[in-house]
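Chapter review: from sequence to fold.
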Amino acid sequence: MERARFCHLTVDAVQKQAYVWHEADWKFSDEWHSHHMGQLIFVEKGVQYLHTAERTYLLPTHHCAWIPPGLAHRTSSPVSPVYLRCIFLNHTVDDSFFKELNIFHTPKVLREMILFTEQWSRLEEEDQLELDFLKALAGILPVTFQSALPLVLPVPQNPRIASMIDYLTGHIANDIKIPEVASKFNLSARTMERLFKQDIGITVAGYIKLYKIIKAVELLSVTGETVKSVALQVGYDSVSTFSNTFYNVLGLRPQDMIVG
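The token string follows.
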């Protein structure tokens, strides 16, 4: 598969301190992989999901992700095409920013710098101007970073919990009643709550709320639908309740995530 060759051979085989890859129609693969370089991703169009063994992250349109070097992950997207602008960095300063996978807002200066790197996309030869520019870009990442967006879901390790989550997410537009869901799996609501907390560290209601907001961000980023239509799709009859819940989770209003 071409994309697997890109992930496992092309990038790691490049003998440069930094490497740029912009792709207007990114091809996703379920294959797990890692890079010896850290990876900055900017989503120009569409959305991307980043999966690790323990968490799933949503990377919305016009936002960035930093993936530390050596972190095993895979990627996916519910839409096509997805336009990604990626920058791989071999050396970074000793800052906590570079040690964690984070999803974050893209400051204007960073976005302009990422767009400027298109001229070096897939360039495998050394270029001093490129290197100097990418060193400057790497330098501003921890300076401009303010906080990570909590667009992350824990991944269940217990197959029984995974089945419950599949059911919950498949009925996200409905009025989900936890006791009724628990009974479908021959459990009491209390036992279901206990198993959820043991496996993924949050309550059933907490998982449902977080999933709804993440799904809403995905829809707002790619569909061009209204806030009201998205609210209904993720199970909110009241737009004001949806907006307030959205703000409590992300610190933003739903309309802030609509891509113009």
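Two observations follow directly from the output. Confidence is low (pLDDT under 50) at residues 1-5. Residues 163 and 214 are 19 Å apart (CA to CA).
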